[in-house]
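Re: beginner question about structure tokens

> Can someone show what the tokenized structure looks like for a real chain? I only ever see the sequence side.

Sure, here's an example I had lying around. Input first:
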Amino acid sequence: MAKPGNNGRVARGLQASKSWRALSVGCDPDSIRGYAQRYLEALLIAHYAQATVFTRTQYLARFAAWCEERAIATPGEVTRATLERYARHLYQYRRSDGRPTRASTQQQYLNCLRGFFRWLVQGQHLAASPATDLLIPRLPLRQLPEPLTLAEVERALNTLDPSRAIDLRDRAMWEVLYSTGLRRTELARLKLDDLDRTRGWLFVRQGKGRKDRIVPIGERAIAWVEKYLDELRGEWLRDAREAHLFLNPSGTPVTPASLTARGHQLFRRACIAKPGSCHIFRHTMATHMLEHGADVRYVQEMLGHKNLNSTQIYTHVSAGKLKAVHTATHPKARLARMDAPTQADIDAAEREAAAEAAALTDRRSNEG
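And the corresponding structure tokens:
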């Protein structure tokens, strides 16, 4: 069988993975494993993201093993009933710690099979897909993690001692995360040339969905990055060709996993019990901008969301602002009020709420 795809780096990484070996060792080209290999090769040729191909490799390897345990050898032997049994298996499966498979993971497994069988039909390997009308698990309502308050942001950042090298780098990284709302992978990929310190822009290359975007970055974050560049990065640099912005003491770029570990450590030091690590800074940035009057469409651009629906989970408003608008607009909110509110009433309530929010921000800043 030909080596997968044209991207050598991705192909070698895929071939080295345990799941790929499980699919490829001694497999019949006409078996589920054989067709799964060719499907994954097709994804590589179509320039699907590396993470997507790796994940689907794992899903298909597990499905192929499950089928072989039940003497189901070829894709043509897979029926709608087979897939329904597999869906029940995913639902009933328990990990070593007793926890079930999350609904989102079950959904991803079954959506992968939909794509696989659709590819088989398109290539005329099957007459019809048994997964066409397969019932996919519904996901629970998405719960927005509680963001940090402004006081908590400042408390967390102020636990870092800039006289310590690792803390100086971390302070620069967390300032960038809070200022821009980047994902951890996007932060890890930042290059020196991606930051325009003069104009206050950050170029995000190949974000989620392989899309580039430009986001503004605040003056405070830029100042901390400059301090890190001036005082530290050159000392850690081992290879002059290394272009990544944030480095480890060994001179290698930071990784998403290390960012998560540093984030957990930061929260422990700051005595912040809220769950999360890097992503909570993203949630917090979006929440704080919206609470202070940013249009949700601008926040959508900053976060790099394809659909506005992904951003609208952040559009909860503060209780104070909601109460002010309710008082101004509900005809029975006040005992003496019988007439409908005017636009002037609404505008006045919003100004009052904005002033309250600004005063609260000032108080939190002083407390911090």
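Each token stands for a local structural state, so reading them left to right follows the chain. The chain has three domains: 8-122, 150-312, 319-367.
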